Amino acid sequence: MSWWYKLLEVLPFEWAQEGQMIFMKNALLAIILLTPVFALLGTMIVNNGMAFFSDALGHGAFTGVAIGGILGFVEPIGSAVVFSALFAFFIAVIKNKSNMASDTIIGVFSSSAIALGIFLATLGGKSFSKLNSYLIGDILSITPKEISFLAIVLVIVFVFWLFVFNRLLLVSINPSLAGSRGIRTFWYEVVFSCVVAVIVTVSMSWIGLLVINSFLVLPAAAARNIARNQRQYHFLSVMFSLFSGIAGLILSYSFETATGSTIVLISSIIFFFTYILRKKFA
């Protein structure tokens, strides 16, 4: 990490100088690694009309954390990943086997999961406050070890995207056509859902359950307002996500606000700005 700290010394910020506020430098690198992942996955979520999907997965992960706590796990993130992945799988199964609308299925699972999570977290009169960090998140607490893990995740997602993007796009646009071409639409949906579930779960303690859905949806939605093709769509989504993340971190430090919510507010401004401009790019 020393190379990163040295590189940041060229920035005109007090926290960027040598030996100053290592947590800010760690958080900045984490955001640079994390926001492209969310941007790429968000493009497919917006394409599929599953804007509340990540929200539901976050609720499922929260229940997994509560289960891990009951089982006595020191780090309940493992149980959260497992539960969230199973949660995503069952959403995909019911969505595939029934005629119900996706938002209805997601809403049922989401509300059930958060209720179960709160029930388990408070069972026996236990305090809920120990789980507050998962609701708000704290990117400033991220460690170099966790940043290394994020770098691996970023590489895996990019490789995943290179191999399955075209088929995922066809599945999202026309499932019947995809099926006629031999694409197993159900399993592609399952794999994508589980990937999103894992990303949302491992990021929850840094981003916060209350705003993590916005991290996925807003940059992609803003990019879709003005993008003319898929290449522009993905490029703009990544750029908007990166800008929002970096600017949000710097502004949250200056105004002493929660980093996650500050980033989301910037993403919201970008969305409304591109919404106003969308007719010029039509």
Task: Describe this structure as you would to a colleague.
It is globular and about 60 Å long. The protein is 76% helix and 0% strand. The mean pLDDT is 87. It has helices at residues 2-7, 22-47, 53-70, 77-97, 102-121, 132-136, 144-173, 175-180, 185-207, 212-226, 230-255, 259-277. The termini are far apart. With 282 residues, it is mainly α.
Determine the fraction of residues in helical runs and give it as a percent range. over 70%
Task: List low-pLDDT spans.
Answer: none
What is the overall number of helices?
A: 12
Q: What is the chains' assembly state?
A: single chain
Morphology: globular
What is the succession of H and E elements? HHHHHHHHHHHH
Q: Give the overall average pLDDT.
A: 87
Please report the total strand number as a whole number. 0
Let me know the largest β-sheet.
none
Helices and strands in order:
Elements: H1 2-7, H2 22-47, H3 53-70, H4 77-97, H5 102-121, H6 132-136, H7 144-173, H8 175-180, H9 185-207, H10 212-226, H11 230-255, H12 259-277
Summarize the structure.
By secondary structure, this protein is an all-alpha fold. Helix content is 76%, strand content 0%.
Keywords:
282 residues; 0% strand
